[in-house]
From TrEMBL:
Signal peptide limits: none
InterPro entries: Tscrpt_reg_Rrf2 (IPR000944), WH-like_DNA-bd_sf (IPR036388), WH_DNA-bd_sf (IPR036390)
Highest taxon above the source species: Bacteria
Pfam family, one: Rrf2
Record SUPFAM superfamilies: Winged helix' DNA-binding domain (SSF46785)
Lineage of producing organism: Bacteria, Pseudomonadati, Pseudomonadota, Alphaproteobacteria, Rhodobacterales
Protein name: RrF2 family transcriptional regulator
Length: 144
Protein backbone atom coordinates (compact mmCIF):
# COMPACT_ATOMS: atom_id res chain seq x y z
CA UNK A 1 0.00 0.00 0.00
CA UNK A 2 1.30 3.42 -0.91
CA UNK A 3 1.92 5.83 1.96
CA UNK A 4 0.73 9.44 1.95
CA UNK A 5 3.89 11.49 2.47
CA UNK A 6 2.38 14.93 1.95
CA UNK A 7 2.45 15.91 5.64
CA UNK A 8 6.14 15.18 6.09
CA UNK A 9 6.90 16.82 2.72
CA UNK A 10 5.07 20.02 3.64
CA UNK A 11 6.78 20.20 7.03
CA UNK A 12 10.11 19.74 5.21
CA UNK A 13 9.31 22.55 2.77
CA UNK A 14 8.10 24.95 5.46
CA UNK A 15 11.27 24.46 7.50
CA UNK A 16 13.44 25.18 4.46
CA UNK A 17 11.32 28.24 3.69
CA UNK A 18 11.77 29.47 7.25
CA UNK A 19 15.55 29.38 6.79
CA UNK A 20 15.60 31.78 3.84
CA UNK A 21 14.33 35.21 2.99
CA UNK A 22 14.22 34.42 -0.72
CA UNK A 23 11.04 32.99 -2.21
CA UNK A 24 11.14 29.38 -3.37
CA UNK A 25 9.68 28.56 -6.75
CA UNK A 26 7.44 25.56 -7.25
CA UNK A 27 10.18 24.11 -9.44
CA UNK A 28 12.83 24.51 -6.71
CA UNK A 29 10.55 22.83 -4.20
CA UNK A 30 9.75 20.06 -6.68
CA UNK A 31 13.45 19.32 -7.21
CA UNK A 32 14.00 19.24 -3.44
CA UNK A 33 11.13 16.78 -2.98
CA UNK A 34 11.74 14.71 -6.10
CA UNK A 35 8.31 15.70 -7.36
CA UNK A 36 6.96 18.07 -9.99
CA UNK A 37 5.86 21.69 -9.86
CA UNK A 38 2.19 20.93 -10.51
CA UNK A 39 2.02 18.64 -7.47
CA UNK A 40 3.84 21.26 -5.39
CA UNK A 41 1.36 23.98 -6.35
CA UNK A 42 -1.54 21.68 -5.51
CA UNK A 43 -0.31 20.83 -2.00
CA UNK A 44 0.90 24.37 -1.29
CA UNK A 45 -2.55 25.77 -2.11
CA UNK A 46 -3.95 24.51 1.20
CA UNK A 47 -1.16 26.24 3.12
CA UNK A 48 -1.84 29.42 1.17
CA UNK A 49 -5.56 29.20 1.91
CA UNK A 50 -4.74 28.79 5.61
CA UNK A 51 -2.51 31.88 5.60
CA UNK A 52 0.73 30.01 6.28
CA UNK A 53 2.39 30.78 2.95
CA UNK A 54 1.95 33.29 0.18
CA UNK A 55 2.86 33.07 -3.49
CA UNK A 56 4.09 35.78 -5.81
CA UNK A 57 3.95 35.28 -9.56
CA UNK A 58 6.48 36.34 -12.12
CA UNK A 59 10.21 36.87 -12.18
CA UNK A 60 11.62 36.81 -8.65
CA UNK A 61 8.40 35.33 -7.32
CA UNK A 62 7.70 32.12 -5.52
CA UNK A 63 6.43 30.78 -2.21
CA UNK A 64 7.20 32.43 1.13
CA UNK A 65 6.28 31.39 4.64
CA UNK A 66 4.08 34.07 6.23
CA UNK A 67 4.06 32.96 9.86
CA UNK A 68 6.79 32.23 12.36
CA UNK A 69 7.56 28.57 13.01
CA UNK A 70 6.28 28.89 16.59
CA UNK A 71 2.89 29.94 15.19
CA UNK A 72 2.39 26.84 13.02
CA UNK A 73 1.50 23.42 14.42
CA UNK A 74 1.72 20.06 12.73
CA UNK A 75 -2.08 19.99 13.07
CA UNK A 76 -2.32 23.21 11.02
CA UNK A 77 -0.32 21.61 8.22
CA UNK A 78 -2.32 18.38 8.45
CA UNK A 79 -5.56 20.35 8.15
CA UNK A 80 -4.20 22.24 5.13
CA UNK A 81 -4.15 18.84 3.38
CA UNK A 82 -7.89 18.40 4.07
CA UNK A 83 -7.18 15.94 6.88
CA UNK A 84 -6.22 12.82 4.94
CA UNK A 85 -6.84 9.39 6.49
CA UNK A 86 -4.31 8.57 9.17
CA UNK A 87 -4.91 4.84 8.92
CA UNK A 88 -5.35 2.49 6.00
CA UNK A 89 -7.75 0.15 7.80
CA UNK A 90 -11.15 -0.43 6.28
CA UNK A 91 -14.09 -2.74 6.53
CA UNK A 92 -14.95 -5.47 4.05
CA UNK A 93 -18.60 -4.58 4.54
CA UNK A 94 -19.30 -1.17 6.11
CA UNK A 95 -22.90 -2.15 7.04
CA UNK A 96 -22.82 -5.93 7.49
CA UNK A 97 -25.84 -8.08 8.34
CA UNK A 98 -23.62 -10.50 10.29
CA UNK A 99 -23.56 -9.66 14.02
CA UNK A 100 -19.97 -10.90 14.34
CA UNK A 101 -18.81 -8.57 11.57
CA UNK A 102 -20.81 -5.71 13.12
CA UNK A 103 -18.95 -6.27 16.38
CA UNK A 104 -15.57 -6.48 14.65
CA UNK A 105 -16.27 -3.26 12.72
CA UNK A 106 -17.44 -1.42 15.85
CA UNK A 107 -14.37 -2.53 17.79
CA UNK A 108 -11.94 -1.51 15.06
CA UNK A 109 -13.76 1.78 14.44
CA UNK A 110 -13.60 2.65 18.16
CA UNK A 111 -9.89 1.87 18.35
CA UNK A 112 -9.16 3.90 15.22
CA UNK A 113 -11.13 6.89 16.54
CA UNK A 114 -9.28 6.74 19.87
CA UNK A 115 -5.91 6.55 18.11
CA UNK A 116 -6.83 9.34 15.68
CA UNK A 117 -7.89 11.62 18.56
CA UNK A 118 -4.57 10.95 20.32
CA UNK A 119 -2.53 11.68 17.19
CA UNK A 120 -4.42 14.89 16.40
CA UNK A 121 -4.06 16.01 20.02
CA UNK A 122 -0.30 15.44 19.75
CA UNK A 123 -0.17 17.23 16.37
CA UNK A 124 -1.83 20.25 18.02
CA UNK A 125 1.03 20.55 20.52
CA UNK A 126 3.88 20.12 18.03
CA UNK A 127 5.12 23.38 16.58
CA UNK A 128 7.40 23.80 13.60
CA UNK A 129 9.79 25.65 15.92
CA UNK A 130 10.28 22.40 17.87
CA UNK A 131 11.22 20.53 14.71
CA UNK A 132 13.45 23.46 13.73
CA UNK A 133 15.25 23.21 17.09
CA UNK A 134 15.76 19.47 16.52
CA UNK A 135 17.24 20.23 13.09
CA UNK A 136 19.70 22.65 14.72
CA UNK A 137 20.69 20.03 17.33
CA UNK A 138 21.29 17.48 14.59
CA UNK A 139 23.34 19.94 12.56
CA UNK A 140 25.42 20.81 15.62
CA UNK A 141 26.13 17.14 16.33
CA UNK A 142 27.24 16.56 12.73
CA UNK A 143 29.49 19.64 12.82
CA UNK A 144 31.39 18.34 15.87
Amino acid sequence: MRQDTRLSRLLHVLLHMAQTEAPMTSQQIAVMLGSNAVVVRRIMAGLRDGGYVDAERGHGGGWRITKRTDEITVLDVYRSLDEPDLFAFGFSKPSPACLVEQSVNATIKGAIETAKDAILDKFSTLRLSQIEADVRRRMDSVAR
